[in-house]
Design a protein that fits this description.
By secondary structure, this protein is mainly β. It contains three helices and 28 strands.
């Protein structure tokens, strides 16, 4: 029987040629069929480009496994490190060669399992271990965000790098090493906000009541010249129900939806001319039961006709520049009929308390029909969802090339509230 090789691409790291020493043994089970017995030792039929003995392999060189002699072909290869991470690789169509397509980690031990098939169709196998040499410094730190906990379905994942990464190829290495897995599974991508910041979001919002695990395989991986990944603390978050609030500046009402069903509509006021609320999708950043809001903190001169200094309760923040959904008892007469605020979404104290108690960080607040500017994608909170999926993918070094100038937008300062 002549069995064609099985082709399999494995996730993981780099390349080396170790020599397997033992002689191949015969095969065949009790009935004499070549596939019914224990796989023979394929030591004489495959070789790896790794050093012999206790010598350490160079992690900067790819791993390569070659079928020798022409009397067997490689059917499968798996390479895993001590943490169970797989090394990505590619098997030639004729089964003569397998090579890694991702970098090896420095200072790591790998286990290589090779499956072969001889001319009679009998299966062979070979397993061995090797280590890669260490590097003096693993100097690329990564910190995931937000902190572990439960969030709304609009919460992006963030990765803050300790060192700027500008080169496209280096960025691609970083992205390959940052893993986001969710249950239920989603289509998603990283987006480079700037040289040191990446955001990850799904194509659509996260599923309701999902679990999300974020991890890194960059430890010991060469990212760029003299830049190696370090250990990274993994992150686990979950999502609650899909909660979305739509504030309509034209009708002066906010409708709150849970999992697609309307649960409450309340009268509101939004920003008046000259202070119009930003249109677009925002994400709840934090909740503050009490905030002192002063006009001077957003550039309004003290003593002017627009000046204010107010105690504000049940304040749900959606931008760093000062937009909140909050209690505004002083404007109850205008709520539902006119826009009189300085940019926030104001409502009665009872409605604001209900909203405050109902939403969590990561929930969605969408403003429509305002005369204000559009919400920025980055720098003033989480405006990530205001980019369509194709635009979002353009910010990935793997899918679209990353930011054009390698810098990305500058994060806005965390300004004080506006009412």
């Amino acid at each position: 029987m002549n069995h064609k090789p099985r082709f399999r691409t494995v996730l993981g790291c780099t390349v080396l040629v170790l020599s397997f020493g033992a002689a191949a043994t015969g095969c065949g089970g009790p009935d004499g069929h070549p596939l019914s017995g224990k796989p023979y030792d394929a030591a004489d039929q495959v070789s790896l480009n790794a050093p012999k003995g206790d010598a350490k392999a160079n992690p900067d060189k790819p791993l390569e496994i070659v079928a020798k002699g022409g009397d067997a072909r490689i059917t499968d290869v798996t390479v895993t490190d001590g943490s169970g991470h797989h090394l990505a690789g590619e098997l030639a169509a004729d089964g003569a060669r397998w090579h890694s397509t991702a970098p090896l980690a420095a200072g790591a031990r790998y286990t290589v399992k090779v499956s072969t098939e001889d001319d009679d169709g009998a299966p062979g196998s070979r397993t061995l271990d090797f280590e890669t040499s260490r590097v003096k410094q693993r100097n690329l730190a990564v910190k995931f965000g937000p902190k572990a906990g439960k969030y709304g379905v609009g919460q992006p994942i963030t990765a803050e790098l300790g060192t700027p990464v500008k080169d496209k190829e280096a960025r691609a290495v970083v992205e390959r090493g940052l893993k986001v897995r969710s249950s239920p599974a989603v289509e998603g991508a990283w987006h480079w906000v700037d040289d040191k910041t990446l955001h990850f979001r799904p194509r659509e919002y996260w599923p309701a009541n999902a679990s999300v695990n974020v991890s890194s395989t960059l430890d010991g991986i060469k990212v760029g010249d003299k830049l190696y990944g370090g250990p990274v603390k993994p992150l686990k978050i979950s999502t609650g129900d899909r909660l979305e609030a739509i504030a309509d500046a034209g009708t002066h009402h906010m409708t709150v939806m849970r999992n697609g069903e309307e649960i409450k509509t309340v009268p509101v006021t939004t920003g008046k001319p000259g202070f119009s609320t930003r249109n677009g999708i925002k994400v709840v950043l934090e909740k503050q039961s009490f905030v002192r809001m002063r006009g001077t903190s957003v550039g309004i001169a003290a003593g002017s006709s627009e000046s204010y200094d107010l105690p504000v309760h049940y304040a749900t923040r959606v931008t760093w520049s000062g937009e909140y959904v909050h209690a505004a008892p002083w404007s109850v007469g205008s709520q539902g009929s006119a826009n009189v605020s300085h940019g926030c979404v104001g409502m009665s104290t009872d409605n604001a308390q209900w909203f405050f108690d109902t939403v969590r960080e990561g929930d969605i607040v969408r403003v429509v029909n305002s005369e204000g500017e559009d919400m920025d994608p980055f720098g003033n909170g989480f405006g990530d969802w205001n980019l369509d999926w194709n635009e979002w993918r353009q910010g990935s070094a793997l899918l679209g090339g990353g930011t054009k100038d390698g810098s990305g937008p500058v994060e806005a300062a965390r300004l004080r509230p506006q009412v």
